[in-house]
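Aim 2, interim progress: modelling of the magnesium ion-bound target.
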Amino acid sequence: MLIQDLSITYKTKTRTIVAVDRLSFTINEAEGIGIIGESGSGKSTIGYGIMRSLPENGSVESGSILFENQNLLGIPMRDFDSKYRWKEIAMVFQGSMNSLDPVFTIENQMREILYTHRKDLPKDKHSEVVENALNSVGLDPSLVLKKYPHELSGGMKQRIGIANALLAEPTLLIADEPTTALDVVTQSQILQLLKKLKKEKKMRIIVITHDLSLIPNLVDKLIIMYAGQAVEIANASYVFEKPLHPYTQALIQSIPKLHSSDKNIRFIKGNPPDLSTVGKGCRFRDRCPKVFDKCVVDPPKFQVDKTMVRCWLYQ
Ligand SMILES: Nc1ncnc2c1ncn2[C@@H]1O[C@H](COP(=O)(O)OP(=O)(O)OP(=O)(O)O)[C@@H](O)[C@H]1O
Ligand SMILES: [Mg+2]
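Predicted structure of the complex, ligand included:
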């Protein structure tokens, strides 16, 4: 799947903000991509954009999503709904574990999804598909099917959220902050699960998170977002060894080093710019320890080996 030049804006009464600015990347079968960045950097917006699920005031201003010779942004919404949504691309939304409907059992909710999104599937197959989805996220169907959401733990609800996304066997799964608010053990179980899906079902997986320490074992590539722009796109192993963008370097340094005596977390001073007022030049320059005169001009994308970096240091 090839995402090219994707720009997404939100309009409010007083202003328009560019939440995602000309983003391009590819994701192959059985590949995991992590999208990392601070709050408000545009991570969820990328997911909504790919899912064609932007809120009313959001719109795709440019770009294409090429999948099997189709531009998924160019086809009528009806076709996208019937052929791609959930079937090819599914998303576990941020906070989705709190969005299960409290008045229906897990079984009812899952059957409802199948009923709406798998019209191709004969009804007598529904139980089997629901049970398979629960099994694949490590839940015992007999223990959860008759339960209501409030009877389940946070980790179980998050697994249900993922099981729901798997019901139609998508080829791309977007997981938005899949482990936030879960304890450490449950976090690692969820990450293991995503890893297994990637490997065994050859699924493409996009994990969105602000916590870089969660994903080294899960993702192959990283997209580092800053103020709506990808400032670095690189192989994950490469980023941890040799981060190029000063923002990426600061992010890596802010991961607490569990096995060293240095337990200080180094936060990056300052805040990202207000997206409604960003002007020309590098968006990170006010916080950048390596800022120099060139930075008042918008940095283009530079290619350093296999890494894309948006920083004048690499001209
Ligand atoms: N419906 C909306 N209307 C106007 N602005 C919005 C809307 N949704 C998001 N934004 C703005 O767009 C920018 C990107 O938001 P987005 O939710 O994609 O960030 P994020 O990286 O997912 O943040 P977080 O880590 O907090 O989830 C932010 O500045 C946010 O305030
Ligand atoms: Mg978000």
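The mean pLDDT is 91. The longest strand covers residues 16-26.
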